[in-house]
Design brief:
about 700 residues; mainly alpha; 3-stranded mixed sheet; 26 helices; globular; binds zinc ion
């Protein structure tokens, strides 16, 4: 549903402004247990709204009125309700493990959590934990030393510009190869550096102010801080210009450029790749996928034109920024003030227990998750989910057969790909072994560094080895799901298999409208603008006839244009091409989940409809309950600021358009609610349809 955002939390910085006067208030933990969300909430409905005019308002109007954004959030929806509850339950486990561990595993994650909660020590240390990194940056004597520096320092997070990772080869998914990408920006998107609108000019000025304040907190003098801030802004702006935009990045062909080390070296003579590869223990690498050659040449240019001092400013900044949340209160507060309050509209910092719980889950998720699933994921949930997945697969197979625009030849290939999709449900078959990570109760920054290193090493160790399809990219309590194109598998962590997505005590209509649509959505990702470029083995390969591919593009263009027209904040519309994959998956998922429900009801008859009288439950038919349950998954409120950030960066549309955009393209919705052709949710054109 969303791709996993990997947060780089590393540590580093300098002389300290050891602000004893800034002491974090003690965190007494949660004051109440978050309520359990429910699936299909009659009280959330705004019955004064006409579902045929604005279905989202009808499904979510009262919920949105009754659930303003809490001060420590920027978006608040049903997803967040469940995620907050999962986070709370996880917190209870972590707290118990920190106070009285019952196993070596509990001791490890309990200590990790306790180190994060120890604000007294964090405040006392100021930025001191960053000293080794900042000293290494200060010791650089020439830009030509950067490759050796990076190899040594990336373990601690003070490296910059280039990095090598290991991933599946897009053209031969059985191989794991070296790759290097683009990055190095701090603001949410390249557009924030380049857009001439006054809104972005203002944000850039606020960012430079933030840079100055942070450098000043590190102990730099006023003039030095100003110069450093300008260095960072200038270099990041150059990197932004040299970066591909997010829409381009969606095309696997544009991210695939296999080069020998010598070719890469010729592209960037100012960076010694072999020294770097040798330094990180990857001497055996002979070829690399360079996803963004223009980024490589841009960095190369920067390394020759920027003075060493400016390069050092840039490295200092990224070292400090990556770890700001782990430092004393003045750093934490200033980091919050710009990135959360100014950029996103968040009013208050989240309580520390919430942040430390998430941080522990990120670092040691498959340790923490072992106890969590025992308590929160009953065995029958997995079996029920498997049944639902099979029902959705059957429905998609039937849907493929009926597509009027696709030839039999392409249908046969699509069917093969669908049949090849594998499902992973709940949690991993084998838990990751974190026992090599040293966790110290009095070393927050060191713990984060060591946990990051563990993941870094785990990634590099994959080079040249077979792919492990049982590996998970999300931790068990996560409220999310994903499709992995090179592996052609769908993944549903235990965290999402609960209300408002799934409730075994309710009728199939609401479960198909909830988790059923999520399953259909993930399956459809194999056939969206991006996923359709991979074959059943996960290789980028055209499996379409030319004619069908042209028709597919015509249909997805219809969707892109439609969503381009949806406004998310005054003067800010969605980007229909950035969100095309997710919108295609939403539309296809809704359709096949609906059909799967109808098939189930036809097969099982009245037995499948507990609690119905005269064909209705709570006053609604199964079809209506299906659509309401679907719409209510997306009930949410958001600040204007975050809506603008998401419009530039998030491949998902906001809840309003995930709901209304999908139902207005599906005539069964209009029929279920008795809409007339020509009403907004039942357009005369029939809307756009791909799957
Ligand atoms: Zn998705």
């Amino acid at each position: 549903m969303r791709t996993l955002a990997r947060l780089a939390l590393l540590a580093f910085a300098t002389p300290l402004c050891f602000a004893q006067s800034f002491v974090s208030p003690p965190d007494s933990g949660p004051t109440s247990v978050p309520k359990k969300p429910i699936i299909f909430d009659v009280n959330a409905l705004d019955k004064t709204a006409d579902p045929c005019t604005d279905f989202y308002q009808f499904a979510c109007g009262n919920w949105r009125k009754d659930n303003p954004i809490p001060a420590d959030q920027v978006r608040w929806g049903r997803f967040n309700e469940l995620a907050e509850r999962n986070n709370y339950l996880l917190y209870a486990d972590l707290k118990a493990a920190a106070d009285a561990p019952k196993s070596a595993l509990q001791k490890q994650y309990g200590d990790y959590f306790a180190a994060c909660m120890n604000t007294e020590l964090v405040d006392k240390l100021g930025a001191k934990p960053l000293d080794p990194q900042l000293e290494a940056i200060a010791a650089l004597t020439a830009t030509s030393e950067l490759a050796a520096f990076n190899a040594k320092q990336e373990k601690r997070g003070s490296a910059g510009f280039f990095r090598i990772g290991v991933g599946q080869d897009q053209k031969d998914s059985s191989q794991q190869i070296a790759e290097t990408g683009q990055g190095g920006l701090t603001l949410p998107d390249r557009d924030y550096y380049l857009n001439p609108d006054q809104r972005y000019v203002t944000i850039r000025q606020q960012y430079v102010d933030h840079l100055q304040k942070m450098f000043t907190l590190l102990g730099d003098t006023g003039d030095k801080a100003i110069a450093e801030a300008n260095d960072v802004m200038r270099i990041e702006t150059a990197l932004a210009k040299g970066s591909m935009d997010r829409v381009e990045m969606r095309d696997p062909a544009k991210r695939y450029h296999i080069m020998t080390v010598a070719e890469l070296q010729a592209l960037s003579p100012n960076y010694n790749w072999q020294v770097y590869l040798d330094g990180i223990g990857m001497t055996q690498v002979k070829t690399i996928n360079v996803s963004s050659p223009q980024f490589v040449t841009t960095v190369n240019q920067e390394l020759s034109t920027e003075p060493l001092q400016a390069i050092k400013s840039y490295l200092r900044w990224h070292t400090l920024h990556a770890s700001a949340a782990l430092l004393s209160k003045p750093f934490e507060d200033e980091d919050f003030a710009f990135f959360s309050a100014t950029l996103q509209g968040q009013k208050e910092q989240q309580p520390r227990w919430k942040r430390c719980t998430r941080m522990t889950d990120r670092a040691l998720g498959e340790a923490v998750g072992q106890d969590w699933v025992k308590q929160n994921f009953p065995p029958d949930a997995k079996a029920n989910m498997e049944n639902l997945v099979h029902a959705l697969e059957a429905s998609m197979a039937a849907d493929l057969k009926t597509l009027p625009w696709m030839s039999d030849a392409t249908k046969a290939e699509a069917r093969k790909k669908l049949d090849a999709i594998t499902d992973k449900i709940g949690y991993p078959a084998h838990w990751r072994d974190y026992s090599s990570i040293v966790v110290k109760r009095d070393d927050l920054v060191g713990n984060v560094e060591r946990a990051d290193n563990f993941e870094r090493k785990r990634n590099l160790d994959k080079f040249g080895k077979p792919v492990d399809p049982t590996e998970w990219g999300m931790t068990p309590p996560t409220v999310n799901a994903y499709y992995n194109p090179p592996q052609n598998n769908i993944n549903f962590p235990a965290g999402i298999l609960q209300p408002p997505f799934y409730d075994n005590s309710k009728d199939p209509a609401v479960n198909f409208g909830g988790i059923g649509v999520v399953i259909g959505h993930e399956m459809t990702h194999g056939f969206d603008d991006q996923g359709s470029k991979y074959d059943l083995h996960g290789n980028v390969k055209v499996w379409w006839t030319d004619e069908d591919l042209a028709k597919f593009k015509e249909r997805t263009e219809c969707t892109a244009k439609e969503y381009d027209g949806f406004e998310v904040a005054p003067g800010q519309n969605l980007n229909g091409h950035l969100t095309l994959g997710e919108n295609t998956a939403d539309n296809g998922g809704l359709r096949i989940a609906y059909q799967a429900l109808m098939d189930t009801l036809a097969k099982e008859g009245a037995a499948a409809e507990p609690g119905y009288t005269d064909g209705k439950r709570d006053g609604y038919t199964p079809a209506q309950r299906f659509f309401i349950a679907f719409g209510q998954v997306w009930c949410q409120n958001a600040t204007e600021q975050i809506s603008r950030v998401m419009a530039k960066t998030d491949p998902h549309s906001p809840g309003q358009w995930r709901t209304n955009g999908s139902v207005q393209n599906f005539d069964e919705f209009g029929k279920a609610f008795g809409c007339k052709v020509g009403q907004p949710m039942m357009p005369a054109s029939g809307g756009c349809r791909t799957w």
